[in-house]
Structures are given as structure tokens and as C-alpha cells.
């Protein structure tokens, strides 16, 4: 079976008590955390910028997966990422729906110049064919299992077909991307996602709204 990574999404963390949220992740042996950046343009919600991430990074040693749900102006593209890059994320994910082909190439170059994993996300209604042009360069593909924008929504099971297809493509063509899923994850939906071929599981409300964080993390692994 594939190695499973659980990445808690800090969108559902208690921001008045981030120190404790970091502690809960450490106690559960979390290696990766998922950081959702939203702009009230690409999605109808606004979250945090690079300062909060910088503070998290300065008091922990997690690998950082930044999930950008933003529309960035072409001429400000390089600039936009600069403060996040200083936080040394391991991976940066942008939505294919938010960029032109030219911008996707710019994003790829920014990732590679800075030694950051290049990752693209697809929303539930987006056909994964849009990834074809970058499939051999991608180091991760994020399949959204809810419409991006909010935590606490219900899992859309139809997206599992995309996961199965990507897992199959990977096997037959030797592609090296990992497959990540985000949205509506709990112990039941994580099982379905793992069976379909997912390697990285993002969970927000299921973990942070629970008193027993460690137990909930374990319940997502199905090993
Ligand atoms: C939603 C975000 C998710 C969110 C998931 O657009 O990308 O990362 O935090 O939250 P849950 O796990 O509660 O669906
Ligand atoms: Zn996310």
C-alpha cells in the first residue's frame, strides 16, 4: 500500500491558541501542515497571509504545503510569492482554474528556482485533462473534494474517479507526482480516498474541532 501522509489544515485551527494547535500536531507526530491562502476573489473567503505562516514556521519544523486559492495579476506574479518563499515551504499549490497557461509556466519556474515542490490543484468540476501539459513536471496534484473556500463542507465522492485515473496514469507512465485530497475528510472518506490511490490526506474541521486530535489523526490512516 502507498505511504499515507496526514496534513492538518490550519484553516480550522483556533487562531487565539496557535501555540497549542502546533503542540497538538507535534504530539500526533505530524510531519506536514496545510496552509490555506484565500483572497476573496478566486474564492468567496479571505484567510491569512505570510506573517501567520512565518510565525508558525518560527515555532515548529513542519513541512509546509501552501494551498493558494488566489487570483494573482500577471505583472505581480513573482512579487506575490516572495514573502511565502521566505517561509521555506516544501510545496506550493496553485489552482489551474486561477491561472493562464503562461502563468502556470511562471509558477513552475518560481517553484523550481526556489527548490519548492510544484503542485497544481483542481476544483471538483474541473476535468483533469487540463493538467496534461504539465503532467510530467508535476510533483503533486491536489484533488479538491469540496468547492474551495470553506472548511466543514461535505465530501463530493465523484472526485474519486479523478484520483483513480491519476493513480492509473502514474502507474502506467511512471509519473512521480503524489496525489493529495482536500475537503470533507473524516475516517470514512479518507478510507475511500486511500483505496482510490491518494497519498496525502488534508483534514481541517475533523481534526481541529476534536478534543482527541491524536486519535483522529490515527483514524485517518487506515494502515
Ligand atoms: C477548503 C480548504 C481546505 C479546508 C478543509 O477550501 O482548502 O483545506 O480547510 O476543511 P475540511 O477538512 O473541514 O473540509
Ligand atoms: Zn486546502
Automatic annotation (TrEMBL):
Does Protein biosynthesis appear among the keywords? no
Give cofactor(s), names only: Co(2+); Fe(2+); Mn(2+); Zn(2+)
Q: Kindly state which reaction or reactions the protein catalyses.
A: D-ribulose 5-phosphate = D-xylulose 5-phosphate
- InterPro entries xrefs: Aldolase_TIM, Ribul_P_3_epim, Ribul_P_3_epim-like, RibuloseP-bd_barrel
- Any Gene Ontology biological process: carbohydrate metabolic process
What EC number(s) does this enzyme carry? 5.1.3.1
Give the family per the record. Belongs to the ribulose-phosphate 3-epimerase family.
**Subunit comment for this entry?**
Homodimer.
- Entry-linked PANTHER family: RIBULOSE-5-PHOSPHATE-3-EPIMERASE
Protein name (Swiss-Prot/TrEMBL): Ribulose-phosphate 3-epimerase
Protein species of origin: Mesoplasma florum (strain ATCC 33453 / NBRC 100688 / NCTC 11704 / L1)
